[in-house]
Amino acid sequence: MPGLEQVIGNIKEWENRVKAGLYALAQQTAAEMEAYAKANASWQDQTGHARQGLFGEAMEEPNALKVRIAHTVDYGVYLELSRKGRRPILEPTAQKFAPQFFKAAQELLNQ
After folding, report:
1. What is the CB neighbour count within 10 angstroms for residue 25?
2. Helix H or strand E encompassing 65
């Protein structure tokens, strides 16, 4: 059926556009999270390596899209958990950006 092939082609085209849009949104969110974390980490820099090593990343997997914020320094876990966990930056950053990411993703899906 020629009409069915056209419908399937349109659905695949829409799927590809949505995936590309979501990935672009994930990359933008990762960059914003990185900038926020670097600007707002409350611990004091000794060498600057920890702050410079904060990074945001978007990762595409077969059935998932992930956005993360993380440390590159091995003592990052200490920075997050020291002082009884009163000065973390990773979790607060993720919590701050998650609602706006999901809202923008929903808007993209509703187009």
Report:
1. 19
2. strand 64-70
Answer yes or no: pTM beyond 0.90: no
Based on the number of CB atoms within 10 Å of its own CB, is 26 exposed (0-12), middle (13-18) or buried (19 or more)?
A: buried
pLDDT tens readout for residues 66-108: 999 999 999 999 889 887 777 899 999 999 999 999 999 999 9
> What residues does 67 pair with on adjacent strands?
58
Instruction: Supply the DSSP string of 55-104, one letter for each residue.
Output: EEEEEEETTEEEEEEE--STTHHHHHHHHHHTS--HHHHHHHHHHHHHHH
- Separation between Cα atoms, residue 66 and residue 86, nearest integer Å: 26
Cβ neighbours of 101 (radius 10 Å): 19
Cβ(37)–Cβ(89) below 8 Å? yes
Short-list 48, 54, 22, CA closest to 36: 54
